[in-house]
Amino acid sequence: QVQLVESGGGLVQPGGSLRLSCAGSGFTISITSMNWYRQAPGKQREFVAGITIWDRTNYADSVKGRFTISRDNAKNTVYLQMNSLKPEDTAVYYCNRPPTDWGQGTQVTVSS
User: Fold this and answer.
1) Helix, strand or coil for residue 88?
2) Are 68 and 75 within 8 A, CB to CB?
3) CA pair distance 94, 70, nearest whole angstrom
4) Are the beta carbons of 91 and 39 closer than 8 angstroms?
């Protein structure tokens, strides 16, 4: 059974950093692409970052240059390093194994 468990969210001041983790089980991360999405209150879920099986990455324009997606195959874990956080980054962040496997989400709040 596929399972995705996110962690690392929390409250951070504007300009701060957080690293989210997504631990996978029931499948092998190294042979699948993985994505991060987020959903802010009252808004639709949106794509944030993705990494392919060849480690090619892509990002939403709103996070380019600030967020970095990576994976550790030995730990079967995908990460999202978030720097220079802004209040508009506040959302629940979800890990996704395409097309339909999702984690439970982790809350990120950027506020002073």
Assistant:
1) helix
2) no
3) 15
4) yes
> What local confidence, expressed as pLDDT, does residue 102 receive?
97
Q: Is 53 left (phi over 0), alpha (psi -120 to 50) or beta?
A: alpha
- Per-residue confidence (pLDDT) for residue 72, from 0 to 100: 95
Specify the 3-state DSSP secondary structure of 94.
strand
Query: Is the preceding peptide bond at 99 cis, omega within 30 degrees of 0?
Result: yes
Q: Name the DSSP letter for residue 13.
A: -
Which of 45, 51, 44, 39 shows the shortest CA–CA distance to 89?
39
Asked whether 8 and 107 are in contact (CB, 8 A), the reply is: no
Q: In whole angstroms, how large is the CA radius of gyration of the chain?
A: 13
Q: What is the mean pLDDT of the chain?
A: 97
For residues 111 and 91, the answer to whether their CB atoms sit within 8 Å is no
